[in-house]
Each structure stands twice: as C-alpha cells, then as structure tokens.
Amino acid sequence: MVSKPNVGVGIFTLIGSQLMGYGLGGIMRSFLVYPTYIVFPNLLPTVQLFDALHRGKKIMMQKKRVKFFWFIFIGIFVWEWFPEYIAPTLTGISIFCLANQDSAWFTRIFGGLDFFLYPVRNV
Fold this sequence. Notes:
66% helix
C-alpha cells in the first residue's frame, strides 16, 4: 500500500536540500569564486565592462564613466540602426518620380522596378 507523503516532509526536504546547496557553495567559494583568472571566455566582455564602470572609490568618476558609457551606447545604436532601417526606406523613395508624377516616361526612366520587373510608380 502506497501512502501519500506528508506536506511538511516535502517542504522541509526542499528547504534542507537548498540549504545544503548553499552550504556547499559557501565551502567551495574560496576556489570557485575568488580566483579571478578563472573566468569563462564568453564572460570577459561583461566582466571588463563592469570592472571599468565601477573601478575606483570616487563616486564622481563612476558617474562620469556611466555617462560616457551611455553616450557611446546611444551613438552605436544610431550608427547601427540608421543604416539598417532608415537607409533602405530612403532608397525606396524616388525623388524624381515625386517631382514629376504626371509623365509615364519620366517614371519609367527614374522609377524603380518591383519584384516582377514592372515599372513602379512611386507616389
């Protein structure tokens, strides 16, 4: 006959196993956490960024570093975002076709071609 385990036993088993894990982590902390030369290669950029932003004791230097980081971040965002999304949109607009919308020949000469190679009248 199989009986249901007590809820209290399950909860205390869960808490006990978690505390054993924290205890083992605390015991092994001296050689798993503290040696800074043992860092996985994919974490190096993140570790270096945090170290550069938070190095030093002066709060004013940290504020300047964080401000500089945000300026560079916004600059890189615009540098990458503009060619990716705005530039293709600008290439799809024919200024000549917008200037002279009444002439079919003008549209054929300066207008683009769509996927099926038919002249497109840009509006």
